[in-house]
Amino acid sequence: MPKFINKSQIIGEKGVAEFHKYCANQNPPIIWREETKNDFGIDGEIEIIKKNENGKYEVTGEILKVQLKSTETGSYISNETHTNFEYHASSDDITYWNNHKLSVLLVVFFVNEGKLYAKKVNDLDFEKSKKRIPIIFEKAKDELSNSDNNFLNKFIPHFRTRVNFDSSDTLYTNIFTFFKLPKSIYAYNSKVNSKKLVYDSDIKEIPEFILHSSKIYTFIDLKHYTEFSKMFVEESPPSVSFFKTFLNNPQTRNYAIELINKYLRDYLYRKGIGYSKDYNRFFFKNFNEEPLSSETKPNFIKEVYRVENYLSKKRTKTETEREVVTSYKYYDNTEFYRHLAFEVYYFLDNDNLNISITPKYLFTSNGKEVLSDKKKITRYTNYLTSREFNQQVLNHIYFIYQYLSENKETIQISNFENCTLSLSKMVIIKVPFSIDFCNKSKKKELDENIIQQRLFD
Q1: Distance (Å, rounded) from C-alpha 66 to C-alpha 91?
Q2: Residue 164, CB half-sphere, CA atoms under 13 Å: how many?
Q3: Of these four, 3, 48, 83, 456, which has the most CB atoms within 10 Å of its CB?
């Protein structure tokens, strides 16, 4: 029995061949790599080649992803005029392109005319209810012609450079170090085996403590809490350990971190930051019934419910506002609140206790109750965070630190008696490599406008 090939496959191959030919005819040529496995909205990638001082071609590692579509009958194309046409992309493809770490180039080949058109896929807003979203091409501007040799002039701002080991760079991390910790930790024999009994009691002053194996662990000498001691602590004297020793012991390390985390949670609570057990993250709470401001977007209405001030990186005297609780109302009657949030993780490095702060979001239905539909949450997260690149994430980390430190040099979590807990500024690391957006030779070739576009794209 003979085997057959679909006509659509033949049409697709014609587009691939034409684009490959176009790349090869550029000067210097452009490397085209077709991805033959799994079509998830990307058909291949192109890489820039440069000519060195000796006239030899060198690959640069600068990559742009490509989605290539061919049409013979005008499928996926509508509203074509002598100047424009619309390509209708699926909402799944657009979500994938928006979330991609590399820029994506959409190439359309008209088989009957033998013409290629290319457009860099920008971050696209779209209504979730629509399955197809139009992307407008301008024929004169977006045509790829072998005669003009201007591909790099059009698209070089969108290439991303891979790691460059010929230069060094500075890495800003989300890691903060505890430079002040308690000197000692006390372990008391407990009269109770449940923390609930303590918190359900009528005692007015309860110290920060944890309870494990009939032991109450605390940073504070409980002689200052006579009522608490009388009701819940055995009369025998406590065992006292150096906290650093207690922390470095694998058998007690988790107890040490759990107790520190109680102080952190209490500190964050005083700063208007709650904790979600469902998602194991801290989040900025909403205190307002009415929005502070409102803004109408093409597909939704955005309302701001909480803003906080902080000093920008430039250390100007003027404070910058950061929106930390906002609501979104879409025209398909979808509504939700988005809270700036973050996760923390403790770890030891050379006997130093560190904490990482990873920016996240928390979605609620009314500013308080967490959304239970995880599929919706994923869709909201993908849509709203697809526009956030490294700089935005760094800004989130910087804001969280500035807010918690009250624009000071350290975060003072606790500072009384034996219990001093302070976090340093973020850890900054010098590394023997860099990830360049624009190398020196290319800076000479690009004018200032293109450089700025590339840096802030």
Answers
A1: 17
A2: 16
A3: 48
pLDDT of amino acid 129: 47
**Which residues does 93 contact at the CB level (< 8 Å), separation at least 6?**
41, 67
Q: Which of the pair, 437 or 449, is modelled with greater confidence?
A: 437
Residues 399/416, Cβ–Cβ less than 8 Å: no
DSSP symbol at 286: P
Instruction: Using the structure block, give the residue that is written with the tokens 């060094």.
Output: 168
What is the 8-class DSSP label of residue 318? S
6, two tokens: 């679909």
Whether 452 shows a pLDDT value over 70: the answer reads no
Q: Which are the contacts of 358, defined by CB distance < 8 A and separation ≥ 6?
A: 174, 342, 343, 344, 345
pLDDT (mean) for 314-330: 81
Quote the pLDDT of residue 444.
Answer: 38
CA distance 409 to 423: 9
The CATH class of the 7-164 domain is alpha beta
- Whether residue 159 has pLDDT greater than 50: yes
Within the chain, all domains assigned CATH 3.40.1350.10 are found at 7-164
Q: Are the beta carbons of 208 and 263 closer than 8 angstroms?
A: yes
